[in-house]
Amino acid sequence: MSGAEWHFLSPKTKLICSDLSSKLNLMGWYNVPTDHISFWDNEVLKTGKRILRFIMTPHVHHWDSMMIFEDTTKSLFPSDLFLQPGANKPVLSEDLSEAMIAAYREVGIFGSEEPVRNTTKRLMKLSPNMVFPQHGSCIDKSMFSKYTDAIMNNNFAYSGMLLGQELGTFS
Description:
- This protein is α+β, with helices and mostly antiparallel strands.
- It has helices at 3-9, 19-25, 97-107, 114-126, 141-153; strands spanning 15-18, 36-39, 44-46, 51-56, 66-70, 75-77, 130-131, 139-140, 161-162, 165-166.
- The strands form three sheets. Strands 3-4-5-6-7-8 form a six-stranded mixed β-sheet. The chain has a two-stranded parallel sheet with strand order 1-2. A two-stranded antiparallel ribbon has the order 9-10.
């Protein structure tokens, strides 16, 4: 459901996004609500029971990307980082980090490994109890290091191939 549809169904709803995305994407686009709340890196939103910390993650998927860390439960919402392909159990009990790296290579999500690794280092310091990727199963803290190790120790950035076809590189 789009932001415009949510706004229609619940007029008090506000879109939450990175401040950079707000300035670049939400200033008067047709049919997109401009009533939103935007955040910079490490700013927090207190909801009463929860504290949402916003983490700017440029070039971890998109150049205006952001993740959320919920401080009270130590839950990480990492967008497209730590995804796993396939139908898996709700919480992973097996190491699918190699499949994650293979999927990143296959679909060319990341243009470079450096920003992804820099973000991964930051996330490791947060020591999340649970990770809720946008694609795939949840990863608890016992499996988290397998995924961070895979990112830190493997090549996964776009290399000129996309879905098995050679597209070349920009140089």
